[in-house]
Amino acid sequence: MTNFSNSQPVFIARCEDYNEDHLYLILKESFDTLGIDHTVFAGKNVLLKPNLVMAKNPDAAATTHPAFARAVARLALDLGAASVTLADSPGGPFSEAYVSVVYNTCGMKLAAKDGLFALNSDFGFSEVHTSGVKLKTLNVINAFLKADVIVDLCRLKTHSLTGMSCAVKNLFGVVPGVEKFQMHSNFPEVGNFSEMLVDLAQYVTSEKTFIAVCDAIVSMEGNGPSHGMPKKTGMVLVSRSPFALDVIGERIMFGAKGDNTAVIRHLDIAAGRGIMPRNWQDIEVVGETDYDVFEFAPPDTGAGYLLKNLPNFLGGKLVDTFSARPVINTKKCVGCGRCADSCPKKTIRIGRRGEKGKKIAVIFRENCIKCYCCQELCPLGAVDTKQHFLIKLIH
Fold first, then answer.
1. Alpha-carbon torsion, ordered 106, 111, 117, 118, to 10 deg
2. Greater pLDDT, 337 or 357
3. What pLDDT is stored for residue 302 in this prediction?
4. The domain containing residue 161 runs over which residues?
5. Do 237 and 342 share a domain, yes or no?
6. Is there a domain that residue 310 lies in?
7. What is the Cα–Cα distance from 4 to 273, expressed in whole angstroms?
8. Number of CB atoms found within 10 A of residue 259's CB
9. Single residue among 241, 267, 287 that ends a domain in this structure
C-alpha cells in the first residue's frame, strides 16, 4: 500500500490540445519527475478512474477526454503494467446497459476499440469499512477492489454543491450507481458531505497505489459539473496526492481574485486533519512553476463560495435557509424523470400541466436537501437554481 504525504509535489505542464502523442510525452515527463517508474506499475493491475458524470461529448468539458485514458494506458503498459482497465460509476444505475451508453457518448468505447485498455465489465460491488471521521462503511465497485494502482483521471471543474470537482471529488465515482444518491441523503449538509469526501479519499489512497492526473486543458466554469461552460486553461496536472493537486487546482481556478483563494470546504477539512498544507504557496510545484491563474465563474448556487464565508450568525443553523434552491425550467423540461430518479429524498414528481398536458417535473420543497443532484444529472440542463436575495446582496 502507498500513502500520500504532506510533501507530495504537483507537476504542471502547459498543453494546448488533446493530441495523444503529445499527452504521452507530458505524462512521461511528469512520471519521471515525480519518481513514478516501473516499480509502481510492473506486473500490476491498473484502474483508470475517469470523470464520466453523465453521457456527454468530451467537447462539453464535463467528462475526462479519452485522449488522457489512452495516453496513461500506453504509459502504464510501457512501464510494465499487467493490465489496464477503465471503470467509473456515473450518476445513474450501475448497470451494463446504462454505463455502456455513457462510455459510448463520452468517447471511451472508441478509445478502447484497439484493446489498449479494457472497459470494466464487472458491475458488482462490495462493502468495505473505513476509519473515517464520518464515513465508516460504504459499498465500492469491484473494479476498484481488484486494482493495484488507481489513476484518478479527473477534470478541473466547478461544482454546484462542493464548489469544485477535481481529484478528490472524482473518487466519489467508486461508489456504485444510485448509492451515491443515498450518500447525499446521509450527508445532506455541505460540511458533512465534504467530511465524507475527505474520508473517502483517505480510504482510497491508503488502500491503493495512487496517482492523480488532471485534465485542465479545457476546464469548466459556471454550473459544473455537468452544465457549465468550457474554459480554456491549457494545463495538465499530476500528483501522488489528490489533496495537494486540488489545492493547486483551486489556485488555478480562483487565483485571479488575489491570494485569498481558499474557498473549497473539503480542503479546509483535509488541512485541519493535517493531511496537507492549506496554503497553495506551501505546496511544491514542479515542471511549469509560472502557471496561469483565472477567475472562474462560480455555479449559480454559490454553495462552495458564499455560504462558507458567511458570518457565524448566518453560517450555522440558517445556512439551509439561505442556500440556493433548485427550480425547474419549464421551457426546457420534457418530463423525462431523470431528476426524480436522482433525488435522494424523492421530493420530485413528474406531473402534467396546461391544456395539452405537457409532462413536467415538480419539486416538493419540504424535504429538499439542496444537493443539486437534479441539476447535475438533467440531460437537458432544465434545472436552474435561485439564490436568496440576501445572498445576492452579500455577493
1. 50
2. 337
3. 65
4. 10-287
5. no
6. no
7. 14
8. 10
9. 287
